[in-house]
């Protein structure tokens, strides 16, 4: 459930009309619902009642400070993958002891900053990374808490570009090497093994791959305990999918997921870390855009909108589906088949192909749903298009939580060397 609903023929975010936001802030614009973020977090947390669980929101989904502060007030931790995300999490009030650092290419700067902050654990992904963390921790007179991200070689049966748990993927330590890695941790003076980590992919719509991977981890943790390693945490990553297509079969519920986790891992004397991102943020946001032209090429019918692939890259990158609905409700039966496209000079700047919809005209507003995750956070300034505004709604109030970048601000980021001065 989300809090984007029609009222008297107009689409609202909670108690604020999207038409009002578009008129006052402009388009394209991202609009987020506080109540939806809160609801999704609480539903997920309830699914793990009875288990010692830390929910570390995967910030790469949406790292706006208003979003992070909303979740921090709910008690969330954070899964971060850069020093920028670390600093964002801390600035939003997320305690360092609720932060885990992931990623295959951690730099010295990121390791130093994380050690200084006192994060909960490093989810390491290579032997070289382990050795570097040990060296840096030694230089700082610290002991770094380490969790090894293992690659269980499990097919998540998701899109190939968001699959991370197969042996061919760049992520994690190969399954057959885990014993050697933990033995090496035990031999190094400035690291200590505190957990096991895995993440097999994103937007999973079936619990079976999770169950297979988690069952393998149970065997691993028991073996590590037998070898004397003080494994206290099992980090299960994220990946549970959300419904993008109206009327399609829904992914498993958080309750079903939590029950499966309890059945598989409940007997281990370990706390659980989970890293949901899309599940919390995905349906908490929409992208509001205006139709600027209607165009017909022979048999093709296009609605050209003012949002583009630089604002929302998921359809171009993943062939991702986003429901597109009019901001002014039209109860007529869908009567036209169109491509919704953006203005960028790329054939991939397409939001939907052959989509059945009600008739629209230039000046009409539309909302691209399920745009709260991997949308604004992946946006760019391609074609010198400034970053668009982000708005957060809370009941009958709204605030601009990232202002629209001006063209002048975008150009000012560049510097012309003195030999080119005129």
Please tag this protein with its features.
single chain, alpha/beta, Lyase, Ornithine Decarboxylase, Chain A, domain 1, 2 domains, 9-stranded mixed sheet, 8-stranded parallel beta barrel, 21 strands, globular
User: Termini separation (Å)?
Assistant: 58 Å
Main beta sheet: 9 strands, mixed
Q: List low-confidence stretches.
A: 158-167
- How many strands appear in the DSSP assignment? 21
Helical residue percent?
A: 25-40%
Mean pLDDT: 92
Number of distinct helices: 12
Which CATH top level class of the largest domain fits? Answer: Alpha Beta
Question: How many domain units?
Answer: 2
Please, what is the CATH homologous superfamily of the largest domain?
Alanine racemase
What name is given to the CATH topology of the largest domain? TIM Barrel
State which percent range the strand residues make up. Answer: 25-35%
Strand pairing plus helix content: what structural class? alpha/beta
CATH architecture of the largest domain: Alpha-Beta Barrel
Cα Rg: 23 Å
Which outline best applies?
A: globular
Describe this structure in words.
There is one protein chain. 28% of the residues lie in helices and 26% in strands. It is built from twelve helices and 21 strands. It has helices spanning 18-25, 34-46, 65-74, 83-91, 108-117, 127-139, 178-187, 208-226, 254-265, 278-281, 314-318, 407-411; strands at residues 4-7, 10-13, 16-17, 29-33, 53-58, 77-80, 99-101, 121-124, 144-151, 173-174, 191-197, 233-235, 271-274, 285-297, 300-305, 324-326, 336-341, 350-357, 365-368, 389-394, 397-402. Helix 8 links the parallel strand 11 (191-197) and strand 12 (233-235). The model is unreliable at 158-167 (pLDDT under 50).
């Amino acid at each position: 459930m989300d809090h984007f609903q029609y009222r008297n023929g107009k689409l609202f975010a909670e108690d604020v009309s999207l038409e009002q936001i578009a008129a006052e802030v402009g388009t394209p614009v991202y609009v987020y619902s506080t109540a939806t973020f809160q609801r999704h977090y609480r539903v997920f947390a309830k699914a793990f009642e009875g288990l010692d669980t830390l929910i570390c929101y995967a910030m790469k989904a949406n790292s706006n400070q208003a979003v992070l502060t909303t979740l921090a007030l709910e008690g969330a931790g954070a899964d971060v993958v850069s020093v920028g995300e670390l600093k964002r999490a801390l600035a939003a009030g997320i305690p360092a002891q609720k932060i885990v650092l992931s990623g295959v290419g951690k730099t010295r700067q990121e390791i130093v900053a994380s050690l200084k902050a006192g994060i909960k654990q490093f989810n390491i992904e290579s032997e070289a990374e382990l050795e570097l963390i040990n060296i840096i921790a030694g230089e700082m007179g610290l002991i770094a808490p380490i969790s090894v991200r293992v690659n269980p070689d499990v097919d998540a049966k998701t899109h190939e570009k968001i699959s991370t748990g197969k042996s061919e993927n760049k992520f994690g330590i190969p399954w057959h090497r885990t014993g050697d890695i933990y033995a090496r941790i035990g031999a190094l003076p400035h690291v200590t093994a505190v957990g096991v980590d895995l993440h097999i992919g994103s937007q999973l719509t079936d619990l079976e791959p999770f169950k297979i991977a988690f069952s393998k981890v149970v065997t691993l943790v028991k073996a590590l305990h037998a070898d004397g390693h003080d494994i206290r945490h099992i980090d299960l990553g994220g990946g549970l999918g959300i419904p993008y297509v109206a009327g399609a079969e829904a992914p498993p519920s958080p309750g079903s997921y939590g029950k499966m986790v309890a059945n598989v891992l409940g007997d281990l004397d370990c706390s659980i870390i989970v890293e949901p991102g899309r599940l919390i943020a995905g349906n908490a946001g929409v992208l509001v855009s205006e139709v600027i032209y209607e165009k017909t090429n022979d048999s093709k019918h296009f609605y050209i909108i003012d949002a583009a692939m630089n604002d929302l890259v998921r359809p171009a990158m993943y062939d991702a589906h986003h429901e597109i609905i009019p901001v002014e409700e039209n109860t007529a039966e869908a009567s036209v088949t169109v491509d919704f496209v953006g203005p960028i000079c790329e054939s991939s700047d397409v939001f939907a192909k052959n989509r059945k919809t009600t008739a629209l005209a230039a000046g009409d507003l539309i909302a691209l749903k399920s745009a709260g995750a991997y949308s604004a956070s992946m946006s760019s300034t391609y074609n010198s298009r400034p970053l668009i505004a982000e708005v957060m709604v809370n009941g009958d109030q709204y605030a601009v939580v990232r202002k629209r970048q001006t063209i002048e601000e975008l150009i000012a980021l560049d510097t012309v060397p003195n030999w080119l001065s005129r």
